[in-house]
């Protein structure tokens, strides 16, 4: 079965999928689209969006759908249906925060951007991460759900890394359990190897 | 298994769950939070939001997560891993549309921007989404979006189409005959039809304070 991921040549919504494929040990073609080529490629995508995962001759769209498909197939979804749903719940929640980050990150007006950054750090981050930090602590171990690595850990770790890299290096200072989880994800041998080879 | 839907007294994000339960004839309790009581209730919720599904006392949050959980629990998720993923894809793709609708209808503070966003929604976003969905439905054949049997995605998407008809334009499906047939097929399922006739919820004139 051949796998090809079509996405832009940056992390964005594609990186979590790349990390997940690497964790699953799946060889895939990393089809990176340059922004200037996007207008010609766009009409040929199912929903005029990327990422798109091509599996054989079929394609799947929507980043969380793609993550979930890979996770289900390669058993990175927890031990039962309830844990699978908890993976969904946490990923969708961090995705809500990521959508707020997008508004800040792509704001062209520097004054508005500074305002959005402040709101992001003082209101939005605590709103989501206090609870997520507690959930990780209550779960015990290194992960968010159950006893083993799931796609939710990878998805959340990827987004937290983005916030650290682009908003504030210290964004996880008050959320030690999330930092521990993120470090555990990036220490996974296959993820480490993928990042080193990137 | 006891099921409780905790939400406001509107269709909103919980209606898809109610439709799924009705289709399956599974009993559930509708725990209605009045908007006046919401500020006091909010801090005790997992993420400061509703809806929540409570299953034997355990709580699950996030609208799509809840729908998907019900879809998997009750085997309304297609017959293969691929069909399962297609359910996800169509729900996620139509979520983008509904989130934009919620954004300008309930959350946009600037009146001029609200008008602008609604205009773009009607002229561009709706047609872009419905055109693709129309082709998907046509190619799948039969009554539904994925495979041969009803899935949670059919219920979720049909509900969204009803939302758009109720709030934006009752003729919105006129250019999309396959989607019109699809929505009618879902809402004609006897248990769903019976629920709708009984429930009295409406998408017309939704309370703007509860988005």
TrEMBL record, chain A:
* GST C-terminal domain: residues covered: 80-198
Q: Does the keyword Transferase apply?
A: yes
PANTHER family xref list: GLUTATHIONE S-TRANSFERASE, HEMATOPOIETIC PROSTAGLANDIN D SYNTHASE
Coiled-coil ranges from the UniProt annotation? none
Protein name from the UniProt record: glutathione transferase
Could you list this entry's UniProt keywords, alphabetically sorted: Transferase
For this protein, the Enzyme Commission number is 2.5.1.18
Its UniProt entry gives the catalysed reaction(s) as: RX + glutathione = an S-substituted glutathione + a halide anion + H(+)
Q: Which Gene Ontology terms cover its molecular function? A: glutathione peroxidase activity; glutathione transferase activity
Q: Which residues form the GST N-terminal domain?
A: 1-78
Q: Which InterPro entries match?
A: Glutathione-S-Trfase_C-like, Glutathione-S-Trfase_C_sf, Glutathione_S-Trfase, Glutathione_S-Trfase_N, GST_C, GST_superfamily, Thioredoxin-like_sf
Q: What Gene Ontology biological process does one annotation of this record name?
A: glutathione metabolic process
What family classification does the UniProt entry report for this protein? Belongs to the GST superfamily. Sigma family.
Native source organism of the sequence: Folsomia candida
Record's superkingdom?
Answer: Eukaryota
Automatic annotation (TrEMBL), chain B:
Which UniProt key words apply to this protein? Answer: Transferase
Cross-referenced SUPFAM superfamilies? GST C-terminal domain-like, Thioredoxin-like
Q: Where is the GST N-terminal domain?
A: 1-78
Q: Where is the GST C-terminal domain?
A: 80-204
**Which reaction is recorded as catalysed by this protein?**
RX + glutathione = an S-substituted glutathione + a halide anion + H(+)
- What protein family is recorded? Belongs to the GST superfamily. Sigma family.
Top-rank EC class of the record's enzyme:
transferase
Keyword Transferase among record annotations: yes
InterPro entries from the UniProt entry: Glutathione-S-Trfase_C-like (IPR010987), Glutathione-S-Trfase_C_sf (IPR036282), Glutathione_S-Trfase (IPR040079), Glutathione_S-Trfase_N (IPR004045), GST_C (IPR004046), GST_superfamily (IPR050213), Thioredoxin-like_sf (IPR036249)
What Enzyme Commission number does this protein have?
2.5.1.18
Matches recorded under CDD domains: GST_C_Sigma_like, GST_N_Sigma_like
UniProt record, GO biological process:
glutathione metabolic process
The molecular function GO annotations come to:
glutathione peroxidase activity; glutathione transferase activity
Q: Which domain of life is it from?
A: Eukaryota
Full protein name: glutathione transferase
Q: Which organism is it from?
A: Folsomia candida (Springtail)
